[in-house]
Amino acid sequence: MVCSIHIERRGVTKSDKMRILPLAALGLACIIAFVGAYETELEDNVERNTPLSANMNNYIDVVMIQVGPWMNTHLVPMALPDVVEGFEHRPILITYHGELALTNGVFHTIHSVGRNGNAMMHYDRQLLRVSVGANIRQLGFTYDYSAHIMDLGPSGFVDVDVATMTFTSEFIIDMTDFYIWMQDFRLTNMGNLSIRFRGNILVDWLANIFVNIITTIFRNTITNVVSNGVHEFIQATLDDMNGRLRGRAISEQEAAVLVENLKKMLNH
């Protein structure tokens, strides 16, 4: 089996990093969730240094509504690697050797993003730890394909839809200087693939081979490319946020404003 991979990924431009509202809202929601719980603890006369935990599902659900459209605008389209895979097929006596090439790949569509599991925050010793899982739903990909097998040379393009990709992430916010870093980010699950060939009528046995190859490529290669792309984009956004807020702790007055803004968001 031969595999040749060439990756061309769109870089994060300055204009991309300026459009940080959805992820900034994520950080904002984390802080507000903390402040909201914090104020409740104060009302109950609990010491400020007491470790506390809280469920953030309602806050994160508000943020997730905005993340899908934002990713569709600023993360995709994303270039995908060219891949060449060798294969063989032996229906009776003759073994057919061939090669399938996927080129000009594009990750072009995200339908929506939703929370996966409980979103939790834990506060202790001026560190706010936020754990969030997300489902990216109905991802769309397109590739040109061409094959060489004996005297056959079919070509066309293929549409691939992935039902869902599930990620888990963890962020830490240092409340002394409002520095945010990503502690963990992992792809935890990939859903079913829907594969449709266009531009050429393939015999059943060849179509089945192509489906198997493409499924393997997506599970072994493309998911890593997409996962790394999302990870790098989030990290670039955090770097931009940290550059703007470095060395600046949140004040009590600002905390009160954040709480009021969140109330307005949830009331609408």
Automatic annotation (TrEMBL):
Superkingdom per UniProt: Eukaryota
Sample GO molecular function, one term: lipid binding
Parts of the chain that traverse the membrane: 20-38
Protein keywords: Membrane, Transmembrane, Transmembrane helix
Matching InterPro entries: Bactericidal_perm-incr_a/b_dom, Mite_allergen_7_sf, Mite_allergen_group-7
UniProt source species: Anopheles farauti
Descriptive protein name: Lipid-binding serum glycoprotein N-terminal domain-containing protein
Cross-referenced Pfam families: Grp7_allergen
